[in-house]
Each structure stands twice: as structure tokens, then as C-alpha cells.
Specification:
Blueprint (H helix, E strand, L loop, with lengths): L2 H25 L18 E7 L6 E8 L17 H13 L3 E10 L1 E3 H16 L4 E11 L1 H6 L4 E4 L4 E3 L11 H6 L24 H25 L4 H7 L4 E3 H6 L5 E2 L2 H12 L4 E7 L3 H5 L3 H5 L2 H12 L6 E3 L3
Parallel strand pairs: 2-3, 2-10, 3-5, 5-6, 5-7, 6-9
Antiparallel strand pairs: 1-10, 4-11, 7-8
Helix pairs in contact: 2-3
Length: 330
């Protein structure tokens, strides 16, 4: 192990030691049963910090939805990125906190997996309907495809005039190099139990029957997308179908078409929610929990951020077979 790695490792252990001392000092006689945790360090999956102190009771929780919506994409203290389970935990945390009156989703994503998008959407609907929380969306630089899917059930959607949104639709892609393989004398030996077991194989041409099956799957996911927009927005199904042809819109165009309610940034979204609530509530932002368990569960790759290895692993994870996606790709 080289000197740089030894220094990084020593720094990590120093942080652990300092955190433990702080934990003992602040916890006093607090026990684990009282919520102190090991060494007095809370090991909750979600923690909050105040980003704008109000003068009255209640809280507005800001939850960030950033990056490609893909389960298992990673994300951690030393390896930031989209973390699907953490996001679901944050939505649940806001739902269960009786002092939270409203939630603002800061959406900055091109979308991602159909399943992941739907899981987030369902949690947001539950937050709004079952827990009676106001839900606003503040769109960042992009909130396209699955990014719009998760935004659709919000009470109010704000966007910058130049936000890239839309891309309302479904995509499934693969690469086929059957002709190239034949040209180079590369032979694929596949043993399968049924005609369509190797559907979308990269080593054989797609048949009409293959395409018909896959198109039916895409169409089914597309109908679900249309259902979500129709239910969340004041638009008829015919209007949604006209808008949902896969094209992208700026925030200004989206507002003209009824996909967005107002133009404004995050601060203006916060102001609007405070006005709607009728009081100057605290604004808090949710973050990943940070405790001794987080250290114990880290791998060497998390600590040292071997970027090339992580990028390769991420690419492989994203390309493990064809996936059904609510995703905008440029």
C-alpha cells in the first residue's frame, strides 16, 4: 500500500476516533435504548439539516432526486450518486414525521428504470394522499422522462424556463452485431428452452415476432406513463397523448402545454409553499445518515474512490441486458 493510501486510511480512523469522542461528550448518560447509538453516534438512514430557519412551527422537507434512477447504482458518503433505497427512505421519513407539513422534491434527473420511477411515484402519491402532505416539485436543469413521471402527482410543479423536461415515453435498446460477427467468422452457440429465450440477443437478427413482443411491452409501459400524467395533471387523455410523443420541452414550453404550473427556482418554490401553508416554517434538507455503521459497512473502494473501477462497474451494471426505461438520452 502506497503512502497516499496509508494517509487516507489514517484519516478515516482519525475521523472515527473524533466522532466517538464527540459522541461520548454529547451523549452523556444517554443509553442506546434512548437513541444514542453506538458511541453516541446516530446511525439512522436519514438525517436532516436546517437550510432556512423559519419563525413559526412546522417544517418543509426538501428531498433531492438526482442522477439516473437506477436501483443498485450506488451512492454513499465517499461515493456520491443516486441511491434508490435512500430516496425511498427519505420519502417514508417525511411521511412519518408529524412536524413535516410539506415536501419539496428537487428533481434533476433524465429518468431511469420503469420500476424505480414507479416506486418513487407511488411513495409520492402515498405521501400526498395518505399522509396529507403538500408536495411541490422544483425542476432543476432536467426533469425528463422518468423525472417527469415522478413529478406528475405533485400539487404544484415549478421549473426554470430552460429546464429540459418532457421526453414522455418509453425506450428499450440493444446493440446487434450479428453481421459483423458473421463477417469476422465469430460463431455464437446458444442453447435455449424456447424460441424467444434469447430475444434481443446481440448475435442474431431481430425477427418480426421478436419486435412484436417487445413493442407490446413498451406499449404497456407507455400506457402506464400516460395514466400517471392524466391522473396527476389537469389534462385530458387526448391532450396527454398529443404531448407524449417522446419530444423534449423547455420549462417555458412545458408550462404553455400544462405540464408545469409555474416558472421559478427552488427559493421561489419554498416561498410558494410557505405562503400556501400560511406560516414561516423551517426548511430542512434530508441527507444520508452518518454513523459508525456507515464506516463499518464501507469497502476499500468506497473509501479510496477508485474512480476508473467504479465507472467501469457502473457501466456494466447499466448494460446487463436490455431494460425498459423512462429515460431521456441525448
Amino acid at each position: 500500500m502506497d503512502l497516499k493510501r496509508w494517509i487516507a486510511l489514517i484519516a478515516v480512523f482519525a475521523i472515527i476516533a473524533v466522532s466517538a469522542v464527540i459522541g461520548f461528550t454529547t451523549a452523556g448518560t444517554q443509553t442506546e435504548e434512548e437513541g444514542g447509538g453506538f458511541f453516541g453516534m446516530a446511525d439512522e438512514p436519514v438525517q436532516e439539516r436546517t437550510i432556512d430557519a423559519g419563525t413559526e412551527s412546522g417544517k418543509i422537507a426538501v428531498i433531492r432526486i438526482e442522477g439516473v434512477l437506477q436501483d443498485g447504482a450506488g451512492g454513499g458518503i465517499f461515493s456520491p450518486g443516486y441511491n434508490h433505497q435512500l430516496l425511498l427512505d427519505q420519502l417514508e421519513y417525511a411521511a412519518q414525521d408529524g412536524s413535516v407539513d410539506g415536501v419539496i422534491l428537487r428533481v434533476n434527473t433524465p429518468g431511469g428504470g420503469v420500476v424505480e420511477s414507479d416506486e418513487i411515484h407511488n411513495r409520492i402519491v402515498e405521501l400526498r394522499d395518505d399522509y396529507s402532505k403538500d408536495v411541490y416539485v422544483s425542476m432543476g436543469s432536467q426533469a425528463a422522462s422518468g423525472g417527469y413521471y415522478v413529478a406528475a402527482p405533485a400539487d404544484q410543479i415549478f421549473a426554470n424556463g430552460q429546464t429540459i423536461t418532457g421526453s414522455l415515453g418509453v425506450i428499450m435498446q440493444s446493440i446487434n452485431f450479428a453481421e459483423l460477427a458473421e463477417e469476422w467468422g465469430i460463431e455464437d452457440n446458444t442453447i435455449k428452452s424456447g424460441e424467444f429465450k434469447d430475444i434481443m440477443s446481440a448475435t442474431r437478427e431481430m425477427t418480426e415476432a421478436d419486435e412484436e413482443i417487445l413493442q407490446s411491452i413498451v406499449d404497456d409501459a407507455y400506457e402506464q406513463f400516460v395514466d400517471v400524467i392524466e391522473a396527476g395533471r389537469d389534462l385530458s387523455r387526448e391532450e396527454v397523448l398529443e404531448l407524449a410523443d417522446g419530444r423534449i420541452y423547455t420549462g417555458s414550453q412545458a408550462m404553455e402545454n400544462g405540464l408545469v404550473d409555474q416558472l421559478g427556482n427552488l427559493d421561489e418554490t419554498i416561498d410558494a409553499m410557505r405562503e400556501n401553508l400560511g406560516r414561516d416554517a423551517d426548511v430542512v434538507e434530508y441527507e444520508q445518515g452518518f454513523g459508525i455503521g456507515s464506516f463499518l459497512n464501507m469497502t476499500a473502494d468506497n473509501i479510496f474512490e477508485q474512480r476508473q473501477v467504479n465507472q467501469l462497474t457502473d457501466w456494466l451494471n447499466k448494460n446487463q441486458g436490455s431494460r425498459l426505461l423512462y429515460l431521456y438520452t441525448d
